[in-house]
Design brief:
heterodimer; A: 249 residues; 3 domains; five-stranded antiparallel sheet; three-stranded antiparallel sheet; 41% strand; B: alpha+beta; 2 helices; 20 strands; 32% strand; elongated; Flagellar_FlgE/F/G (chain A); bacterial flagellum (chain A); LlgE_F_G-like_D1 (chain A)
Amino acid sequence: MTRGIYNAAMGMLVDMAKLDRIANDLANVDTAGYKQDREAFRAYLRREVFRQEPDPVESRTKKVPIGPLEYATVLDEVRTDLSQGPVEKTDVPYHLAINGEGFFRIEFNGGEYYTRNGEFTVNSEGYIVTNYGGYLLDENGERVRFFDDFTVDEEGYVRDAYGNIVTRIGVYNLENPEKFGNTLFTGENPSPSENFRIMQGYVEKSNVDALKAMVDMISAMRHYELSQRAVTVNDELNGKLINSLASLK
Amino acid sequence: MMISLYSAATGMSAQQFKLDTIANNLANVDTTGYKKVRAEFQDLLYQYVKNAGTPTAATSSLPTGLYVGHGVRTAATTRIFTLGNFEQTGNALDLAIAGDGFFQIQLQDGRIAYTRDGSFKIDSEGRIVTSNGLLLVPEITIPENAVSINVSPDGIVSAELQDGTIQELGTITLVRFVNPSGLKSIGDNLYIATPASGDPIEGVPGQDGFGAIKQGFLEKSNVDVVREMVDMITAQRAYEFNSRVIQTADEMLRTATNVKR
């Protein structure tokens, strides 16, 4: 009797989860290096549906399976869309953008994280850092010293004002990258990336597709309304069941 | 359900802040030595319902996790120290630094502040001061009977006296910082040093990476009006998107309240 209400209500709950994801993406539509998410839902439970049939042989009714019924929708996973964001020219020598695959490696708070956000600056000791104090690491895992007249070429080699190679910025591919906050990712098995170009003086912006987010939002909204109608109708049917059918008058 | 409302609110808040910095940049599009400010954002923490890698059975684990984000925060307002254009004024004490470096100015309380604004004047005692009357450091006094003042590209100030002799008055030194974006702005085109900027490194104009001094020029604001306009459009549209999210969340909440009549 209440299964219909719960099923429809779960539909509404997943729409709220979808809206939470869209809200986070749109709030970060202007955050450099941000990657949008995609969620997937699945039916959580499954049961067999039967029909009653007379069984003259054994003179009783028997249950004949019709087929499976899946119900109860849940949010199954949230996956990050790592596609390339648009690149903005800023002309700041510390700003780096990755065109292609891979992440910068950042040392922050005693741990190693990865990011696409290239809005770097330089701290008072001359190390290139993010705006929350995380150090950019080179391909040997060392912090990078950077001065105004340094150049970074497409393969990540850092050269001083005379053209001598000082170090190389590390760009890594990750397995199962997970968002951490501060546009950082954690991940497993970092391996040096081959498929990238570094652009100095550019910043990779958010890859959020605002149009798709708006369309997803409309779709979630309307689905929510439909589910709500399903809950209400279920409720009315139950009301009829209780009040009319089982009435003793 | 409240998460989407608050996420969207952080988005609107961030764009409003960005618009404030754009407005300040545009207001100072004509200020001598002004350096534009750029707002930078970071996403907020994520709430993990399921972590990737959690075992689901004896032999398998989750390939991806289940999480929800909480919006955005303004992480930094970074001052961008690219060079502005130079305007020729012809005034003897209008100085521009063609490259890196700051003039040193002594504040009323004795602290040293730094500036790119080279529009200097002479006070009643002949000392070189800023438009607000603050002394240039090192202090240089122009003698009363000077006919013309010359500032060489390496900062040597000399005056031609009435009788035709040239008197050398002193050298203007500049300072540099490892992280000029870490300087704190105190208004009046002045900056003070902070732990983030590093200690001032003093030097002679034209050497060791310091810019040469150009007499008779002023450095204009480095604000690029076209870029600010584009950023303003982006900020407005991002603000609109986030307000739509709030409206949608509100409608969904209203729909939820109508489940039971």
